[in-house]
Task: structure prediction
Amino acid sequence: MNLQTIRELPLSMLALASGLAGTALAQAPTVRIDGSSTVFPVAEAVAEEFQKATKGAVKVTVGIAGTGGGFKKFARGETDISNASRPILAAEMKACKEAGVEYIELPICFDALTVAVNPKNDWVSSITIDELKKIWEPAAQGKVTHWNQVRPEWPNEKIVLFGAGADSGTFDYFTEAVCGKAKASRGDFTASEDDNVLVQGIEGNKHALGYIPFAYYEPHKDRMKALAIEWNKNSVKTPVLPSMEAVQKGTYNPLARPLFMYVSKKAASKPEVKQYVEFFLKEGAALAQEVKYLPLPAPAYVAAGKRFAELQVGTAFGGVPEVGVSIEELMRRTPVTEAKAETPPAAPKK
Amino acid sequence: MRSIQEIVARRRRQDRWFAVLGVFCTSIGIITLIALLANLLIDGLGHLDWQFLTSFASRRASSAGVLAAVVGSLLVMLVTACVAAPLGIAAGVWLEEYAPKNRVATILEVNIANLAGVPSVIYGLMALSVFVYAFGFGHSILTAALTLAVLILPIVIVATREALRTIPRTIREASYALGATKWETVWHHLLPYSLGGIATGVIIGLSRAIGETAPLVTIGALAFIAFLPDPPVTGEFPFVSFSWLGSDFTVLPIQMFNWVSRPDPAFHHNAAATGVLLIAITLGMNAIAIFVRYRMRKAIQW
Result:
């Protein structure tokens, strides 16, 4: 008897609570955003300014579920906008399609990776993607351990590696761009999700080499030396140092990538979401720069605005991540809603 | 032949060495704690001002604040306490006073002990599928509070049982001798006498819950939210509104985590300030727990 009452207690409380939660539906217009933590600082800056501009009439919430986690919520219709540090994948396209969620793909700014060494390092100023691959590919584990194994004229010193943790988008992007396959990396390096740990590591060891987001390199410029990147598939044949000009011109390849937001077509018909996206495309460049991200060249925002106004749904990638696509090329393409057939991604080198 | 004195002196020496070792081991823990606290205080105290407490998150470290996180944390804790306390106390009373000593009760007991050791992110996954999707509570304060309530339930149950066990058998027997039923005994004697211990357990559970990040990230707590939940009091009838239960939220540890991972070092000072605030709240809650226990112990006269 007593057992019975106690068993029923939680159930009745839940019933009560669900009734209460149900009354909470009538709320002020809210723009719900979730997704990549890489995009978060930009989204936060825009959300903050947008709320100020609308005097709080529209509420904006931004989450950090990660690109993949964000798309899961997006496909369930829980969010209006999904932030992504990579284009939508075929599996995610399928999930959206099955749920009847259509989306408009808008590039919002650039993210660039910097390969950095210690400032006391005087033997290297540029490196090729092939050499980076030699250092970072899974087969290098335990084998490529000294600088002179990469290029014979470099010293016979132990190479100390620092890189992003396996859960970060930075890791996915670097391995994809350098080794040709996302998450394909050697495991014997100091990994951290906290980029500041990497900065400290590179700063503290003369023989260090590591990769960090460009946004983390900028404020610590005097503590590290950035390497110029040489890529045989690049339009520019000389090594390119990371800089805003190089990224915007599309020459810092393949270590610069656009970041995206995916706007649900259904949500785009809501005035508050439309207003937010338009605000983003207008003010986003300045705000991105303020939070140390690299804005797109101005015409790209115009093209994105056009794409949004015309509600062109789909993705320019067809579900297959691609490396080193210039932003002009991206905006020229017609977005598609069907995933491409299994074509291998355009890897920098096979 | 060794004299007695020699043996005694040797053992005294060993005794002293052990004392030194003990002090050394204790001081490692304490010095680490002091160093951590000092580090946090140096980094964060300067940023902990009225503006910081009353502002929302911002892209500018200097104008960013923790208002949404503080309100979120306090509301979540309030609901957590309201859910975990009655459930935990009821379960504890049943297990200690009513449960027959059979296999079912043993299995229940072992499971409760195990629950206390489950990593908190597992609770988050459970909550995502049960509270968020199956019950449809969404990514709300209610979901967060229910998750944390389940998380601290074992702590409350164990504390309740411990508190009940400290009550002498004679009290129960005296009550039964006067014709009281089991329920009357529990309600009029056992619960009042053990309330100090139970309250301590609830508050210690809450001070664990307030620092949890992983389960709340899993159920979809937000990182940027620049508005407060609806107020609990409205101008119209019935004057009390529960719509804040369904509101989006963030909490202090998530705000802190988010700032720690930002490139701009100024945000790290903000994170440290949030840490100071969080530690202050936790220490405050523990202080209340100690005070409550002291007062209630003194009030009991057998």
